[in-house]
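Q: What structure does this chain adopt?
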Amino acid sequence: MYTEYGNLVNARQVFDKICQRNVFLWNAIILAYAKSELCKEILAFYHQMQEEGIQPNNFTLSFVLKACAELLDLKEGRGVHDHIVNNGIEPDVFVGTGLIDMYIKCRCIDDARQVFEKMSQRNVVSWTAMITGYSQIGYAKEALMLFNQMQQLEVKPNTFTITSVISACAEVGVLQQGKWIHDYAVRSGMESDICVMNSLVDMYAKCGSIVTARQLFDKMSRKDVVSWNAMIAGYAQNGHAGEALKLFHQMLWVRMLPNSVTIVSGLQACAHLGALYQGKWIHGYAIISRLISDISVGNSVVAMYSKCGSLELARQVFDRIPENNVISWTTMIAGYGMHGQGEEAIALFSQMQQKGVKPDHITFVCILSACSHAGLVDEGRHYFELMGQKYCFTPRSDHYACMVDLLGRAGLLNEAEDFIKMMPIKPDTGVWGALLGACRIFCNVELGEKAAECLFELDPENAGYYVLLSNVYAAAGRWDGVAKVRAMIKERQVKKSPGCSFVEANNRIHAFIAGDKTHPQSDKIYTMLETLSRQMDEAGYVPSTSSALHNVAEEVKESLLYVHSEKLAIAFGLLSTSPGTPIRITKNLRVCGDCHNATKFISNVVSREIIMRDSIRFHHFKNGLCSCRDYW
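A:
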């Protein structure tokens, strides 16, 4: 009676007074404690009943295994498994499923599969447990294979099975299979299940079908925080950061409380756009709602401030995180690196080592990248060797790409080429792209053509590589080469992404493309450009016409450079922000040489700091100088 009404104190008192307790009484008290999720007490009962000579049955064992799974107590779980085997107990489907679940939660997937294969009888719960286990630990392909086997045996999946299989489709990006499972869910009447719908929204978003994801999201009659998170993250991860922020604010409008996952996605969207003020607002919301204590939120705030150009605020937040993990340290090191502050990145890496935090592969990518942007060649070589010698990491493609970039930026093109030849793994697009980028800087046409040939073979549809090679030709005055690249782009039907620059003003993000006249304030923007042009000419500015990739007259090249998206964004920023405040520009592509030079002049003639983030790094322009010291 007491156990049924949840009065554990009275139930325990009565239980302790009973002299002869059989397995049914032990099961009753264990069940009562299981309802209250008192897992440690359940394990204590399990051992006590055996000491009194009472053998647990399948009912007992199912709850004990669940307690082991919740506590992630692998040692205790293996002990229960050994007890089953040694005592010849024939586990029923519930115990078998409990073993599978325990091993999966303890990340022993091979043990779970062995139990699954030995089960004399399996039901949908057993199959679902195994499929879910594979899906949750990143074995999505195995999860899908097991689901196909389940279908062949005509075991009917339930909503939990479908949810896990959809998640597996999302992880490996198999849109067609995801669509088939979506159709199955509709035919089986599962479309009203919120978990299934959330998984479908997430799957379509991760597979790049963001329109379909939004259609499903809008059709949902009931949405929870997971629904909103799936759609917001989908927008953020597919390059629709503006839509992600709109949906974030819409979520607040309908009074759905965000959780830490929502905050992380919102901060990622702000970081992508360079939306500092909106990022500050979300940071403030995280503090007020006490979500800032979540380490993933803290790390995302650090990343947001770094990517929005405010390294000082990023460091303040980093220093306030109570226990920085490897992601925290790596994020801050990456921030210093992208701002060209290589020595600060190195100092922080040393501090990380002193604190006993072990760097991972990504940390080494960030420190090598920081050395590359700052021209710290010897230091970069040191960290590349340290990775293997001290931490026993085998370099990956990203690490090799960083080293090629490091050597190439320093003008050591022959050494960079030799480094590639000695790589134990096949060079990928990151490696060859780094070499081609270096060839652009130093106008090495011959080596640039070699790198480009490899890139076109590996990724023929990436327009960025064609543009880079065209830049190499243009810088060398090889207009025949530029024409050849243009012909290749047309013949292969390669789609180029237009350069787009973003500037935040009055809590809104404004986007510009080259020659853009669609903005409501276009007349004022172009008038401002004319004023800036006169002031720059008087200060000695000479357009760098090699940045105009057209074989036309010089005055035509100058007019093309005049309306690049960066300059339009800066002009609008001057019109829309308060005097003396920094203007923050984000560009989706690399800033061209002329815009880089022009921005130095603009920062001087208007006495404003201009912070520009391109696809590679940050440039802080002030008093006619750039923080990169023209090493970019």
